[in-house]
């Protein structure tokens, strides 16, 4: 029912992106002692939004501009630097916060919709 509502799509994509970033960060931490391993990174979701990686489109003039037809598939970049565990742990905390923010947006929007329909 909610899969075609733009704000739910955007929040879902933000959660998927956070999951992808967390996977890369976890791999960096796991391989920190591997000889020759260099850290990898994925840009933040907000960076993708600012660069226009997720094109905003509306199929009608009355639609809110939150929909995106592009899937989340951020590019993983090799930084060429050794893994710094302190930086990776800070990144993991930031990623967790980004995921919580996206989940909060999703829950808040769902609550608003339920309230407007008299379901609360």
Automatic annotation (TrEMBL):
Keyword field: Cell projection, Cilium, Flagellum
InterPro entries in the record: Flag_bb_rod_N, Flagellar_basal_body_rod_CS
One Gene Ontology cellular component annotation held by this UniProt entry: bacterial-type flagellum basal body
Domain of life of the native organism: Bacteria
Pfam family, one: Flg_bb_rod
Keyword check for Membrane: no
Residues annotated as domain Flagellar basal body rod protein N-terminal: 11-38
Entry's localization field: Bacterial flagellum basal body
Coiled coil region boundaries: none
Main location: other
Assigned protein family: Belongs to the flagella basal body rod proteins family.
Record protein name field: Flagellar basal-body rod protein FlgB
Species annotation: Donghicola tyrosinivorans
